[in-house]
Design a protein that fits this description.
By secondary structure, the chain is of the alpha/beta class. It folds into 3 domains: 2-70, Winged helix-like DNA-binding domain superfamily/Winged helix DNA-binding domain (Arc Repressor Mutant, subunit A, Orthogonal Bundle), CATH 1.10.10; 81-184 and 321-345, Rossmann fold (3-Layer(aba) Sandwich); 186-318, Response regulator (Rossmann fold), CATH 3.40.50. Helix content is 42%, strand content 18%. The chain is elongated. The chain starts with a strand and ends with a strand.
Length: 352
């Protein structure tokens, strides 16, 4: 487990809490930057960076010689609703949503879930969050960090969506300074894939990627993160990785045409990894059989740990949704101080 919390973030969060708790009233001056630097054991630049964020959030006015003055905050009330934006269908995501619901109820909070038909519509997601913010005054926001989240809107000051936690993944080119994160390390999954196949004397890895129609750059693709991890570690392990196959399929080439060609290039012991157990079972297996190849010729490693992996007897990665849901709710409710926690995927073994 890894946590990251910048010193300037600590200053922002601490001073914000002072203001919200009434330690400093509207119109009252904060201690000087030098005094705060001595209190927090940091330099004045770090203090300024932390306080300037509160200027953006409309908590403070800052001016040379005048110092930092608390602004009058509009009176609002907060409900026990939590805006929830996540996929909630399929084994993994329905499990995540169920865990979140249970943990929120333990804290006397309840989720308000975006209609799943809008989960890939950036405008609809922002409209939902905006309406929640204006009409429901929610306790906070829990979001699956897909590419369709309106990140540019969420980062505009003043930060209306201040109690904001991203779960499982974060597909954006930069972090939001006021948000919190509990994520899975997808690049490290690539390292685990290489180690898994190396232990089984596999000399070649094939990663039949899914076509990503909405690919916006390397930062937007979890498959790319995994591929980079494989590419980084495969050479040192003496394993060939067919990166060309990955990119052809990722760009939309037909699997039934590209995969047989890749198989003809080499006859060394080969392992398959795919983004989901379902892709292996429903698409790769039939193509092999159609081309006269046996599934037993290859080593298989799946992803998402579904019933398909158990049924077919191949190992699969667990995304630790139960742990992530609990950590996310604990971050939301302030039971955990960390701003960012990154977990490694677990491996569930079904193979004999």
């Amino acid at each position: 487990m890894e946590s990251v919390r910048l010193k300037q973030d600590i200053i922002t969060e601490t001073v914000r809490s002072w203001i919200l708790e009434g330690k400093y009233a509207p119109g009252e001056k904060l201690p000087t930057d030098t005094e705060l630097a001595n209190q927090f054991l940091v330099n004045r630049c770090t203090v300024a960076a932390g306080l300037n964020r509160l200027v953006e959030e409309n908590f403070l006015d800052r001016a040379p010689k005048r110092g930092s003055v608390v602004k009058r905050q509009p009176q609002t009330f907060q409900t026990n609703a939590v805006a929830l934006v996540t996929i909630n269908t399929g084994e993994v995501y329905s499990d995540l949503a169920a865990h979140i619901n249970n943990h929120l109820q333990e804290n006397e909070l309840y989720p308000v879930l975006l209609n799943s038909q809008f989960i890939r519509d950036e405008n609809e997601i922002f409209s939902f969050l905006n309406q929640m913010n204006k009409n429901s005054h929610p306790f906070g926001y829990l979001l699956l960090g897909d590419p369709f989240i309106p990140y540019e809107e969420l980062k505009k000051p003043p930060y209306c969506f201040s109690n904001l936690v991203f779960m499982l993944r974060y597909q954006n080119h930069e972090e939001l300074p006021h948000a919190k994160y509990v994520l899975l390390d997808y690049e490290d999954m690539g390292r685990q894939i290489v180690e898994y196949f190396a232990e089984r004397n596999i000399k070649r890895i094939l990663f039949p990627a899914l076509y990503e129609k909405h690919f916006r750059g390397n930062w937007s693709s979890l498959q790319y993160s995994i591929m980079q991890g494989i590419k980084k570690h495969a050479g040192a392990a003496g394993i060939e990785f067919d990166e060309g196959l990955f990119w052809r399929l990722h760009s939309g080439a037909p699997l039934d045409i590209v995969l047989p060609v890749a198989l003809e290039k080499s006859d060394v012991p080969t392992g398959f990894f795919a983004w989901s157990d379902c892709l292996l079972y429903e698409e790769v297996f039939p193509i092999l059989k159609h081309n006269g190849r046996s599934v037993e010729e290859f080593q298989w490693l799946g992803n998402f740990n579904t019933r398909i992996a158990a049924k077919c007897g191949f190992d699969s990665f667990d995304h630790r949704t139960g742990e992530i849901a609990k950590l996310a709710v604990n971050m939301l409710t302030g039971k955990i101080d960390e701003r960012k926690i990154v977990l490694t995927a677990g491996l569930v073994r079904y193979s004999k």
